[in-house]
Amino acid sequence: MQANGGKESSVTSSFMCYCNSVFVGETSSVKECWKTC
Question: What is the superkingdom listed in this entry's lineage (predicted)?
């Protein structure tokens, strides 16, 4: 369980960081992505 969760967490973190770059126009989206990052 721990190994699976860790792997998924890593992928999600990366996606959130990227989302902030993609949604640079939307302040709301960027803020949310940063928080998750």
Answer: Bacteria
